[in-house]
Predict the 3D structure of the following.
Amino acid sequence: MTPGSETGTGPTWRAGRAVVPVQLTTPVYVVAAPPRTPRSRRGPIAVVLLFALFAMCCIGGATLAFMVNTSRPSSALGPALPGLNTPVKDGRFEFVVASVSCGHASVSRAFVSRSAQGQFCLVALSVRNVGTKSQTFADAFQKANAPTGDSYAADTTAGLLANTDGANVWTLINPGNKVSGTIVFDIPAAGTISTVELHDSALSHGVIVNIA
């Protein structure tokens, strides 16, 4: 090879020196991906907590409804149900059912009247507070039962017309005091009631009085 020649792949000779060719490579830059930001868990946790709260409310409401609707009132006088004009006790209240009158198409007071969907049954009774603290009586806590097992709620609007002073609709009774009035039930036109179920509160055990 002639000195000074630049051809070939081996070292070249220039001015008596061997020149080693240097290969230049294109630099490669590696761009690292940005660190992944941890996904916030507050959203899913909040959804789970809200669902749990909703479920607890539903369970609590269902439990309360079960307690109210499935409580089995007891007789105050043993196996035989007490009847009319017999004092019976539930909680702080002593009840005496004086009479029951059915077959009323309407109830009225002055110029205001309310017609029954079927027929009105008027239950006249007295309520005495035999406890040591005041207690509110409400007709909404009371029920009338048919021989077939059907249960009827009180008609509070009709009760307001049947009671001139509002007694036995919503009344606060202090210890030792007594009120008398009428609870009104709207039952089917061809129906009858055999017992009334009386409570001193929405969650009380209750007592059944035979009116048949």
